[in-house]
Amino acid sequence: MNLSNVIDNLVRKPFRKRLFKKKIAPFRNKHKGESCIIMGAGPSLKDLPVEVLKKFTVIGTNSSYKHYVPDYNVIVDAQFSWLDEALKALRNKGGVTFINLIWNQDKRKLREKLTKNDIELFHFETSADHSMANVRLWNRLSDVYNNPFKIEEGVTSVTSVVPEGAIPLALYMGFDKIYLIGVDFTNSYGHHFFKDDKEDLKKIVENEKNIQNISNSSKGLWEMKIYPFELISYSKNKNKIINLSKISEIKTIQKKSIESFINELKGY
Question: Which intervals hold domain 6-hydroxymethylpterin diphosphokinase MptE-like (predicted)?
Answer without folding.
Answer: 20-188
